Amino acid sequence: MKKIRVALIGAGGIAGAHLRAYAAHADRCEIVGIADIVEAAAGAKVAEYGGRAFNDAEAMLDAVEPDAISICTPPKFHLPAAEAAAERSIAVLCEKPPARNLAETEAIVAAMRGLLLQFAFCHRFHPPLQGAQDLIKSGRLGDLVQIENRFGFRFSRAGTSWFTDAEVAGGGILIDTLVHSIDIFRALTGDEIESAQAQISSALPIEVEDSASLLVRSGGGVIGTLNCSWVTPVSEAVVRIYGTEGQAIIDYDAAAGLRYKLADDHDWTEQNFDRPDRFVAQADHFLRCIETGESPLLGGEDGLAVMRVIEAAYESAGVTR
Ligand SMILES: NC(=O)c1ccc[n+]([C@@H]2O[C@H](COP(=O)([O-])OP(=O)(O)OC[C@H]3O[C@@H](n4cnc5c(N)ncnc54)[C@H](O)[C@@H]3O)[C@@H](O)[C@H]2O)c1
What is the distance between the alpha carbons of residues 320 and 123, in angstroms, rounded to a whole number? Predict the structure, then answer.
């Protein structure tokens, strides 16, 4: 089969994860171009993964005519990149958050209508999360009652990069990191969030929030408490799932990615997963959608659903956007 020709827009941190993932599928795809406004950044990635380096995304799309792109720029530039791809009928894997706000996300989805658009909510491809989804579906946890999630760490780029520039990022940690938590909650409940109230704070002297807590409720009545911080130094990435017949914990840093205990169990049951790499699985899914015409797991409607919650969360916290 002819290899899928893939290009990247943005050659920073997350581009490295996309490139490693595409390299793991080198029998199915090849990197043909990498564009970054800092051409040296594109050049460094090209030296490792191949293709041609550009300092202008549209010039790259015209020169190398890819079948697909990964959008790996800061959020402000997701919409223009997606529009440029749409004009050329190119499939798009767009990093999270979908854009700076709901209106831009709607514009991306409208531009890409009829074309393949996948949003990179990579946790959907984390095998322990998929294991938890299976456990929930099996009914062994009973009815879901509550979900708690925490992503906390000390973020060295807070205050020193675009991540804390609202004009570029669309906000602070709520849109950057809690966007993952919102999609994880949707994945586990299989339901949409109907109510969302946020509290935000900043310990750092920055214009956006560096910590956020979000209280959500799904249409079916599951309650979620989603917490994240860029200023708490002990890294934690944990999802706790509580049902009427048992509970489960996804711990990203534990040897066993998933453990659970049912009502009558004496001990916790641990489930190990082989070296989970969610970016490789995410790229596999994107490539398969191109190869087969299958619909993406995380398409335009998912991006819109998550961004509606983000808007409600900022509004409830009194942030004008
Ligand atoms: N899935 C995840 O877990 C995850 C993790 C980190 C970042 N991200 C997301 O990935 C995106 C990029 O984040 P990052 O950490 O790689 O940022 P980064 O700052 O490390 O890299 C961004 C790159 O984009 C380039 N760039 C900026 N404007 C551009 C433009 N108009 N055209 C081409 N290149 C441009 C910059 O020069 C830089 O090299 C963001 O949306 C971010 O939220 C996702």
Answer: 29
**Mean pLDDT in consecutive groups of 10 residues from the start of the chain, 321 residues:** 96 98 98 98 98 98 98 99 99 99 98 98 97 98 98 97 98 98 98 98 98 98 98 98 98 95 98 90 98 98 98 97 81
Which residue among 19, 20, 73 has the greatest number of ligand 1 atoms within 8 angstroms of its CB, and so is best to mutate?
73
Calculate how far, in angstroms, residue 226's C-alpha sits from the geometric centre of ligand 1: 24
Which domains, ranges and CATH numbers included, belong to the chain? Answer: 4-123+280-297 (3.40.50.720), 126-275+306-316 (3.30.360.10)
CA-closest residue to ligand 1 atom 43: 96
Q: In this structure, what are the phi and psi dihedrals at residue 55, rounded to the nearest 5 degrees?
A: -110, 10
pLDDT of residue 231: 98
- Regarding the beta carbon of 290 and ligand 1, being less than 6 Å apart is answered no
Is 157 near ligand 1, meaning CB less than 6 Å away?
Answer: no
d(CA 24, CA 16): 12
Measured CA to CA, the distance from residue 17 to residue 265 in angstroms comes to 39
CA 165 from centroid of its chain's CA atoms: 19
Ligand 1 atom 8 nearest Cα:
14
Residue 152 structure tokens: 């906390």
SS3 of the chain: helix, strand, coil, percent, to 5: 40, 30, 35
166: which 2 tokens?
Answer: 């609202």
**Is 183's C-beta closer than 6 angstroms to any atom of ligand 1?**
no
* pTM of the shown model: 0.98
Q: Quick check: CB of 13 below 6 Å from ligand 1?
A: yes
